[in-house]
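User: Batch of two.

Assistant: Item 1 of 2:
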Amino acid sequence: MAFSKGQRSYGWYTDKYFDYVDEYKNENISCFPNAEEIYTDIVKYKVNVFLHNPKEFVKFFTLKNASMWAENSYAERFYNSSYCFGGSYYREDVDYKTIDDKLEKSEKIIMIEQKGMIILLFTYTLLLLIIRRKEISNEELLLLITFLGGFFFHNLWEAKSRYIIPYIIALIPLISVEIDFNKLKL
């Protein structure tokens, strides 16, 4: 899933993943007892595609990261309020499409507010790195390494914006650090 396009965006979960396997092997995955071997082949295939097509690589990971890090409502309204996923709660007499349309509109309002907060957080963290690059404490460095570790891990793992919440929280203490803006030479 980490290297395929999911229902919401690149690298996200997809229940159509088995269709991708069918496309790759032109057979039904349930017929294969050696699924681990097949999945390994698929990952090798996708890595090979990225190696031979750098534009596809850049496009894929740009959209994957944007869908994780720029969708900062963490899909909470969609995952906690939508019932279009079927299952035991699904009812024929309910217009789930209309419900989801309303959810998407309200999610956009939340996203505007949260985008402002996330931009301030990232900007201040970047300024902290630039201005205090020679005097960063071990505690600050630990928080930055935690953030970077999460960033790189989720580039290789399934993406969802809600998975990155701990890494955003790791940056919050950094905005309380006082920095001397006079040291910033423009």
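Item 2 of 2:
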Amino acid sequence: MGSEVKGVWFVTAKSYMLDHGGAKALERVAEQLDPAFREAILDPLTSAWYPERALAQALAGMREVLGAIDDEVFCEVMRECSELGVNRFFRVLLRLSSASFVLRQTPTMWRQIRRGQGRVEVEPVQGGTLIHYRDFPWFEDVNYRLLAKGSLGAIVAIAAGKLPRVDIVDFGSDWLDARVEHK
């Protein structure tokens, strides 16, 4: 089985697009997807699983339609989208947690939103945490690197009350190492 992503990501992306570009922008993103994947962004189901390729195409479509050509701008879009996706209950739990605790939960969060390929390892380091994504063949796509960076920033910002510095330390075709400074 290839990698799949939970529908909650698409529900959140749809909401974000409607808030930041309106129905026309959402339609333009949908046009960027293969016809078989368009329902993932137009009528997503929270509990459904969608092929990773649908997410890759949705990310590319969002980036183009929102005009987020600059990497930092698109990273901010991914952070905002990730924050939007954290429901109220989980947001309360995150606010009661430390940044290091939340980051230690990254492997569990990964398994909740993805199935198939990929795993996550967490390593505490002086002044922060290293997050190691492994066996996930999508990191050559810059949008996936920015999604990882934005998502990590979002969960720590909610827990710590301030946006952390998140850097992509290095990456390869199926791996990525990110450092989150939070102390």
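The chain has a mean pLDDT of 93.
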